[in-house]
Amino acid sequence: KRPAGAPDKALAKPVKKVGVIGAGLMASQFALLFARKLRVPVLITDLDQSRVDKGISYIRGEIDKLEQKGRLSPDDANQVRALIHGTTDKTEYADCDWVIEAVFEELGVKQQVFAEIEPIISETAILATNTSSLSVHEIGANLAHPERLVGFHFFNPVAVMPLIEVVKTPDTDDATLSTAMQTARKLGKSAVITADRPGFVVNRLLAKVMGEAARALDEGTPMPVVERALAPIGLPMGPFELIDLVGWKVAAHVQDTMVHAFPERFYASENLHKLAEIESPLSKTKMGKVEDLSKAAKKALTL
Ligand code: 3HC
Predict the structure, then answer these.
(1) Is 104 exposed, middle or buried (0-12, 13-18, 19+ CB in 10 A)?
(2) Please, are residues 30 and 6 in contact by the beta-carbon 8 Å criterion?
(3) At 224, phi and psi to the nearest 5?
(4) 9-56 confidence digits (pLDDT tens)
(5) Closest C-alpha residue for ligand 1 atom 35
(6) Residues in contact with ligand 1 (CB, 6 Å cut-off)
């Protein structure tokens, strides 16, 4: 059965080479997933070679782990390693038919990235953005062909989370949407088509949880209490552990976008921003479980 709003499968275009713009944690995680599941060449770029190298070394480490766990045979692991190529030369995107960006979560930066890439890629290539909460339509505002832009929003940890939010703008054409749905399927994920509204569906709800957790902190409830109190209601991890997983800066940014879009409904937490400036805001057990705020965090928040 077709998911709600999904166009005809027959319109989907083949994806034979993938370009990933950005080599941060999220981009590196899904670059690996594209290579693993689609078995096509994957290019990954960033602003400079050291960022590219960092992404590639993360990917190599993850491939090693998958091989050690027996999730990838040695042959498959070698094949996947060979498919992923890091570069700072954007002209190498010329023959990609699917280019997805996961650069800094700021409208101007994302628009600039697409302005640079659009003249390089072929007219039939699809552009996707992994934005977590910005308007996909606005990201594509200056594109010559906005009909080939779609939101394609992954969740952390990419290897494990089963969902992709596919975001349709008023311009997105059916071939683009159909290709996005097919690509999500080939990545082994289930896709939902969401409206192009701030936070789409998932982050709109998660930003509420994260914001209210930060508010509890502001009101004087200690962090371990907030974490522990929420565990029995069935959340797979506490809100602060989740913020830590997503990245404090990303979480603060999502929060800002939601507060800006719906000021009466979302909580602007200064503490979230203060914690995002600290290198390790949480203290954890040897097993990686969250214990409390770190000493530096307590000092910054003067708790
Ligand atoms: N990277 C790669 N793999 C990971 C991982 C990571 N960071 N964390 C866990 N895994 C893998 C483990 O290796 C394990 O794989 P295996 O079965 O091959 O050994 C598998 O996931 C399960 O791990 P655990 O045994 O540690 O299982 P848990 O039961 O502790 O589950 C979890 C871990 C799946 C991360 C779970 O805690 C969870 O679902 N947490 C909530 C995550 C969530 O809500 N994500 C959405 C964040 S919002 C977002 O990303 C959007 C953005 O725009 C902000």
Answers:
(1) middle
(2) no
(3) -60, -30
(4) 899 999 999 999 999 999 999 999 999 999 999 999 999 999 999 999
(5) 157
(6) 69, 132, 155-157, 159-161, 203, 206, 236-237, 242, 246, 250, 254
Provide the residue ranges of all domains of the chain, joining segments of one domain with +: 9-194, 202-297
Assigned architecture for domain 202-297:
Orthogonal Bundle (1.10)
What is the gyration radius of the CA atoms in the chain, in angstroms?
Answer: 20
Q: Say if CB 127 and CB 143 are below 8 A apart.
A: yes
Instruction: Give the whole-angstrom CA distance, residue 250 versus residue 273.
Output: 10
Range 9-194 has CATH code 3.40.50.720: yes
Instruction: For residues 187 and 166, give the distance between their C-alpha atoms in angstroms, rounded to a whole number.
Output: 13
Q: Which of 85, 137, 145, 153 is catalytic?
A: 153
Between the CA of residue 41 and those of 93, 98, 155, 158, 300, what are the distances in Å?
A: 11, 11, 22, 19, 45
pTM: 0.94
Instruction: Tell me the C-alpha distance between 53 and 59, whole Å.
Output: 10
pLDDT in tens, 115-168: 999 999 999 999 999 999 899 999 999 999 999 999 999 999 999 999 999 999
Integer angstrom CA distances of residue 238 from 4, 87, 204, 233, 289: 31, 37, 17, 10, 10
Residue 34 sits at the vertex; the CA angle it makes with 31 and 38, to the nearest 5 degrees, is: 160
CA 114 distance to own-chain centroid: 17
